[in-house]
Amino acid sequence: MPARLRALVTVLCAAVLGALLPAGAAHAASRTVQGGRLDWGIKSSFQSYVTGPIAKGSFSLTGGAATVGGSQFRFHSATGSYDGDTGAFRAGFSGGVHFVGHKKADGTYQLDLTISRPTVRISGGSGTLYVDVTSKAKDTGTVTTSSQVPFASLSLGGIDMRGGGNAVTLNNLPATLTAEGAKSFAGYYTAGTALDPVSLSADVQAAATKQPTTTPTTKAPTATPSNSTAPKATSGAIKDGAVDWGVRRTFREYVTGDIAKGKWTLSSGAQDGGALFRFPSGKGTYKDGKLAVTFTGVVRFTGENGLDLALSGLRTTVAANGTGTLYADVASPDFKGADVPLITFTAAKPTAKNGLVALTEAPAKLTERGAQAFGGMYKAGTEMDPVSLAVTLTDDAELPALPDLGSAGTGTETSATPEAAAKSAAPDTENAASDTASGSDDGSPLLPVGLAAGALLLAAAALAVVVRRRKARTATAAAADAPDGA
Fold first, then answer.
1. pTM for the full model?
2. What is the pairing mode between strands 415-416 and 167-177?
3. Phi, psi at residue 466, to the nearest 5°?
4. Phi then psi for 4, rounded to 5 degrees?
5. Helix 449-481 / helix 3-20 crossing angle, nearest 10 deg
6. Can you tell me the distance from the alpha carbon of 146 to that of 420, in angstroms, rounded to the nearest whole number?
């Protein structure tokens, strides 16, 4: 091909591709994962063994972990990154589970295992679940603590992790214990053992808008000194507040378990923190070490066997010595009451520091009226979930963060179920031509594959016309110059 024609081909192809691909579409940077939850039962049969008649043990939750249904644990506050171009995904979650069993005469346990901070990493079509593990060896009793052990391999079933949406949702990923996981599991299971499947939902933040690189021509005004050194309020009206309370873990498990087969719904601003509910917008007073606060938010538990219990209008009073009472309006088929004293709790003396008064995980017990509100399910004096309470006295003080469960887990951009895995593993020739991408990571739209291919075909056709016309002109000139009879 002559040099001029090659140059023409190059220019035309560049023009077509330049029109088709926005500047940021060649490779979009990884975006931040912020917020979400991971649900995993570790191994259901292990749970049954720990709490059964042989080990006679139990489990406790740490770091804000919660339970879901009958046998899953929920880990919260996902952080990490996601690259929609390559499908590379990393999300670490907070919370842990502590198992103990086989109690010995000295009060210690032969079985003592903590699994926490699960992290999912996916790259190149394969996935791994990492966890922090503290375990006591079954035979020697040696305690080992390991950080981010590659605990289980995750089967993706051919799922395509690429996409451009704002959530990653993966459901029921099969998990298999690795050799490293078996070692850290204190020898209770061998490598290759099937663990409970893993489900997760993680929110993906939009790509950051690129800022101009030019230097401003005007100098920014000098910032005034902050008021961080100014005296903080130590009493007075409350600016904001929240009370965090999970009611009772076993009650939540009953609601969503096989008996009640129910759920809870939140309204009027109440928030779900996994292991607890947050009732916000606290208003009231703090004076002489005493708190009196009212909150907004409603939680309603519903299910079979007549379960229908709503708690609203929560308020709390805390004395200067730290003893407190939590009240609520209660509505159920068998009990209705306003400002019912549900629980009492004991905490340290409420003290203001930097404009914040906070009580963390104060042990709580059910009152007589509270026992009536729960329909006699629990006796007065029963331990309930601990109470955490925080109020701000100044505008710049901040409430403690709630465990971040992310969105409702309805992201469809990267959704994986066993059925979806099988489908994505098989070629879809019927719909291949009509598949489109919803958008690139930097917000610029991606053209449908079919349109891009069509544009390239048009470019090729245009080039073919140019080539044919050039050949025709060359042939005519050659015929004119050729000897007669050639």
1. 0.71
2. parallel
3. -60, -45
4. -65, -35
5. 160
6. 34
